[in-house]
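queue> pop job 88
queue> type: inverse folding (structure -> sequence)
queue> payload:
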């Protein structure tokens, strides 16, 4: 095995804590249907609706996976039909970790990526454990891939000037 082979260094899925809202709604809806079923027994059939809603919410999060290799980020989504999208690591321009109060309590965080990829300019890796270390590992891999591919990022503002150079036409 050589050092040039692609290796997976992180693979994960979002936490089911993302479903706290949908699960709460399903429980409240089930409680309402149960209360109505006391007075009108055929209403108990309606318990299928919150059960299916909760199951679908669970599967949507469970079937979303993120795989970071030494060369790319692979995103897999979809419960019935599966979509696999990839972004080369050298295309990652910026990374931000967001940890809302409830995420801090549960040890989770969101990693937001800004890329130069046209099909996926913004990528969110939601509700993952150890998000700060993942961001740092990802930053190192991005820099290594840029060095390997000899790629440098150059940003332009709306006027077409390169960032940090200003208007070079006024020099002389």
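queue> result:
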């Amino acid at each position: 095995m050589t050092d040039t082979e692609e290796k997976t260094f992180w693979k994960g899925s979002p936490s089911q804590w993302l479903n706290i809202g949908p699960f709460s709604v399903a429980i409240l809806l089930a409680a309402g249907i149960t209360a109505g079923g006391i007075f009108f027994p055929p209403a108990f059939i309606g318990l299928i609706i919150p059960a299916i809603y909760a199951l679908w919410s669970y599967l949507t999060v469970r079937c979303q996976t993120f795989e970071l290799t030494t060369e790319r980020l692979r995103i897999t989504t979809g419960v019935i039909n599966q979509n696999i999208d990839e972004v080369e690591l050298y295309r990652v321009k910026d990374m931000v970790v967001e940890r809302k109060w409830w995420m801090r309590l549960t040890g989770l965080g969101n990693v937001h990526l800004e890329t130069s990829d046209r099909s996926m300019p913004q990528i969110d890796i939601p509700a993952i454990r150890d998000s700060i270390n993942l961001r740092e590992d990802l930053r190192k891999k991005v820099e290594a891939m840029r060095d390997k591919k000899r790629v440098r990022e150059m940003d332009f503002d709306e006027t077409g000037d390169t960032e940090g150079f200003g208007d070079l036409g006024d020099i002389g």
